[in-house]
Structure formats: structure tokens, C-alpha cells
Fold these 2 entries.
Entry 1:
Amino acid sequence: MIKISGTNTYIDVEINGRTVRIFGELIIGGFVCFKNSMKNWLIPDNQSLTEEEKEEIIRKVTEKTAGSNMIITFE
């Protein structure tokens, strides 16, 4: 299960009890995430993200928001 929340400058993505904060920019109809801001898990505290985890997060967020009113993309 995936939970996404945030503000106009970041989103928090919770997956399996772990949370990552991804900075970006709110745009009309969605949010653009900056991939380079994905470095550490917020929970557990400051544990580094692996490249595989980053790709899984991107895939799950993209799938969850596809076709919704708030499309999240990554650059």
C-alpha cells in the first residue's frame, strides 16, 4: 500500500511503513518531483535510499496517480 501527502513544495510517500520526502513543484493538474532530492528515508531516520528503492517509488507513485486529478511526474 502507498500513501501520498504533501504541500506545494514536497510530497511524502509512505510505503510499507517507510516514508520518503521528495521535493518538487506544484503545477496545474499535478506535481513535478525532483529525482535528485530522493536521498534518504525520512522514516526510518536518514537511512539511505538505494537506486532500486528510488525506481520502485517512482514506479508506484506514477502508477497510483496516472489518470487522477493530481498527476505526479519525476524529472
Entry 2:
Amino acid sequence: MRYKQIFFLVLAVIASMDASAQRRRQKAEEKLNKPDTAQVVKSYIDSLAVLRRQLDSLQQVNQKMRTEADDGRYYRLFAPTTFYHSGANKQLSLSPSTGDEVTDAVDEVMMSLYLRRPDLVRNNESRLKEVGTLREDVNTELTQKVDLVEKVEVVPEEAEPVPVAVVVKKPNFWKFKGNGYLQFLQNYVSDNWHKASESYYSAVAAATLEMNYNDKDRLTFDNKLEMKLGFQTSTSDTVHKFKTNNDLLRLTSKLGLQAHKRWYYTMQLLAYTQFARSLKANDTKTYSDFMSPFHLTLGIGMEYKVSALNNRLTGSLNFLPLSFNFVYVDRLALASNNGIRGAHHTSEDFGSQFTADLKWQIADQVSWKSRFYVNTSYHRTLMEWENLFELKVTKSISANLFLYPRFDDSSNWDKDLGYFQFQEWSSIGLTYSF
């Protein structure tokens, strides 16, 4: 009984040891079979590099074969195996090289193939020559004989019509232009000045607007509106704070029909008056006013367009042998001063007139504008000569000198000048043209 217990105990110890050994062996195998992550990654990268080199090598081989296949000298390597004479001739020749490395290499490869695998040779060069090429006349130029019965003119190709938007502009025969200036003059002297004089301020503004029509054929229609107004102050005048020294409102319209070159049949309308009252120092009397007087003349005659001195001298000369003169005076007290007899506001007469309107561009900065006007009714004569000299300092600054002699035998006689009158002024200021 004891021996049995000892026997079973020994069996139990052996079984437990065997199971323990089996477990240790199993763990060792699992540890041995477990992959190392770093090693796996490295092996994967190495395999990719090897594959990359293989692909590059294969691509190079394919590219080379593709290039060589395009060369006709490699044809025998890819065509069905045929025995060519050139390889054998080179082996039996004293100078086997032809100078073409590719051809010599191909012949050498073909001879090696003939000697090692003669069973692959199915054809020879002599048989190919007996069969011949596909076409012997492929490179022969084909000609055709054609009999021309009638020569046909070449028909030019016409472009397809493309719709075009046509814009017809009506010609504009009107031209607009104008100029203006604002001038100032100032003079100051002290009370104890050694010569007789006085302080004063003056300013004059002027504007000229033109609207002209020319149909480039025969008809012209010119319109010019001139406006000028100046004021002056003086210390000696205790009655007026300021009074006018320049005052003009004049409209000139001319309708012309070309007669010959620069000569035109002309009908001219001239109307002029002033803006404000005309006064004298320390005198309350009004010497002229708006519409007192108002002159209107309508004349018929000929006009000559002036263009001389390389177009630096331009303007017009109007000869009007027949003119109608109309004078209106709104202030009845001033009627007699303007040649109207009796208690009337108007007077009419007929006469002749001449007008010269010129501009001379003496230099780029200096110009002279002149207007000479004569009107006579054969019992009264009026003559005016306006001269404006302009010096352009800059584009917008100029200096002006104005000289204005006048003759009017209907005015009062002066013991020094008679019927002559004279006005002069000079100034500097702003100017503008368009």
C-alpha cells in the first residue's frame, strides 16, 4: 500500500514537471516567433529600394530596346531566324570589320546563333531574294498626262461676310471758343507826396464768347459776344465809393456766303450798349447807362478773310457800303448827347461802315488784338480803334495794355482834343481760354 502511494506521488511530480516544461517551451516558442517591429520596418524599406532599382533597370532596358528597335540594323535580331550571308562572309574575309560596330555585332550574334542552334534556322537569304520584295515600284514617281482644254481663271476665295455695326455721325459744323481775364491795378501815395497824385484801386473783368458755323462749303455764320466791366476807387472822390472805368456789352453777328476764295457776301449785325451808369468824380450826373444809348447797325457788303505771316495775322475786313443805323436812349435826358433831336428816344439813319477785326500773334507770349470801326451817315462820323496788347507771363497770368482812341463829331467840342477822345489802362492778373 505504501508502495502504491509512493508510485502515484512520483507520477504526480513527473506530470507536473512535464506540464511546467511544456509551458516554458511554449512561451519560448512564442517569444521566438514574435516579430520585432523595427526589424520589420527596415526589411520593408530595403525591399522597396531593391524593387525600385529593379524597376529602373527594367525601364532602362525597355527604353534601350525601344530605341534600338527603331534602328533597321537590329531587324535581324527580332525577325524570324534566317541565315544571312554577311556573317559567314566576314568569317572567311581577311578584313571582317565593315566599320559599322552595330552591324558587325549583329552579324557576330547571328553567327553564334547559327552554330549553337541550327535547328532554329527556318529560312535563308537566297530564298528571300527569290521571293522578292512586296513592291518594286514603291519609290517610282507616278506621273499623269492631262490635256488642258480650257484654262479656268482662279476664283478668289471670298471671306464670309461679318456683320459690322456702322455708326454714322452727323458732322458738327459749329465751333465754340472763348477767353476771359480778371486784371487789377493799385496805386498808393502818401499825403505829403512831393508831386500831386492820389491813391486808387482799379479792377477790370472781361470775357469774349464765340460761336461760329462753317459748313466747309460756302456758308459761314460767326457770332461774338464781348463783355467788359471795370471799377475804380479814388480818395479824391467824396461822392462815389467807386465808379466804372470800362463798360461794354457788344454783340457782332455775320452771315457770309463765299464769293471767291477769301471773299464773302456778308450781312453784319452790330449791337452794343453798357452794363452800369457812367459817373465822374465828385459829380452826381449820369453820363450814360444801360440802354442809354443802345446802338444797332445792320449792313450789307463784302468781307475778306485775312491770313498772313504764316497764319500769325488773322481776322477779317468788312466793307459795308449800305447800313442801317438805329439808336435808342432810355434816359430821355441823355437823348441830345447821342444825336437825337427833340423829345424822342430813338433815331434812324442810313450810311456806310467799315470794320477791321485782326489778331497778330507777334510771339508765343505776345499778341495784339485790334478793332478798327468806322460808321458814317454822311452828316455824322464815328471812328473807334481798340488795341489790346497782351503779354502772357504764364499760362494763367498775363499783363494787358489797352489803347483806345475815338473820334465822334456828334459829341461836344473840346478845346484841346476837339472831337477826339482817348482811353488807356494797363493791368496784370488772371487769364483763361478755352
